[in-house]
Amino acid sequence: MDDWATRNGYLLCLLMAKLFPSLSIALQNKKVFMSIKAIISDLDGTLLNNQHRISAYTLNVLKRLKKETNVCFVVATGRPYADVFPTLTDCGLEPDYIITSNGARVHQLLPDGRGVRTDNTRVVIGHNLKPSVVRQILEYAKGLSVLTSPREAVGFIQLKRRKFNTNVYQGPDWWVDEGIEASKEAFHPLFQYTEMKDALYDLPSHNALEDVHEIFFAGGHDDLAVWETHLQKELADALTLTFSHPNILDAVAHGVNKGVAVTEVCGRLGLNVAEVAAFGDGMNDEKMLAVAGHAYVMANANPELAKRLPKAKTTGTNDEDGVAKELEKLFFSSA
């Protein structure tokens, strides 16, 4: 009798799915919704629009998610925490965890309704570059980044003296050899670089180089590709290198990436990575999307990202509120 009921119940479900496709989609969404315990999203090109802002629509969906579900919300970005905190505050976002510097830092928010600040967060995971590695990078970059002849600007990269510039994130500070004016607009007004010119390469003489969580290089992609090859040859066991943008090469400690950080956060939450839905658009999101049980690539993503993640679903662009619309479909849609 039980076998008969099971068999016929299954056939009935198949028939219902054939007759009512929308019901089938709703059931599938319900199944996915029931399996998701955490949402993890990149910021630039994903959750934020092209003006580096969050739309009212997306913010309302995230607030509803927090109010009506027990799902944990996490942001994961390549940006440093000193830039991310005021940006999140301006956007009205209060994630449970904040992954920054491509996984080198993870902060837990202790919400008090006054935004995201250093005094209401605590570092729960930190992976710094070794001071000896920072010294080597600066030594190599000092010579290899120098321009031997003038050249035209590449996109937003307008450097007069170097093929690429070198940026060091040390604690809340940002040191750079040659600043790029356009990059100021891409960061929060409360977080701006200190241009040191050649003095950057003298840092090891008077700075212990502790608490350096990320170094990034901005320049033409071809020059950065050559630089990446050099670093991989000399410091392969000390660095993780990722292009977060064709004109930006990120360097963090070996073994550090967003995917590892997601796994570490899941461990703190008592979750399996299979219970995570992750959204991203850049190559530095690849590891995060690869480990997540439910991966979503933005329609505006680097085309190579989708190629490397054939099982990931594609959602709308960041300017179309792609993340929010997918969340609405998963958690609040009855159709």
From TrEMBL:
<dbReference type="GO" id="GO:0046872">
    <property type="term" value="F:metal ion binding"/>
</dbReference>
<feature type="signal peptide">
    <location>
        <begin position="1"/>
        <end position="26"/>
    </location>
</feature>
<dbReference type="InterPro" id="IPR006379">
    <property type="entry name" value="HAD-SF_hydro_IIB"/>
</dbReference>
<dbReference type="InterPro" id="IPR023214">
    <property type="entry name" value="HAD_sf"/>
</dbReference>
<dbReference type="InterPro" id="IPR000150">
    <property type="entry name" value="Cof"/>
</dbReference>
<keyword id="KW-0460">Magnesium</keyword>
<dbReference type="GO" id="GO:0016787">
    <property type="term" value="F:hydrolase activity"/>
</dbReference>
<dbReference type="Pfam" id="PF08282">
    <property type="entry name" value="Hydrolase_3"/>
</dbReference>
<keyword id="KW-0732">Signal</keyword>
<protein>
    <submittedName>
        <fullName>Haloacid dehalogenase-like hydrolase/Sucrose-6F-phosphate phosphohydrolase, putative</fullName>
    </submittedName>
</protein>
<keyword id="KW-0378">Hydrolase</keyword>
<keyword id="KW-0479">Metal-binding</keyword>
<dbReference type="InterPro" id="IPR036412">
    <property type="entry name" value="HAD-like_sf"/>
</dbReference>
<comment type="similarity">
    <text>Belongs to the HAD-like hydrolase superfamily. Cof family.</text>
</comment>
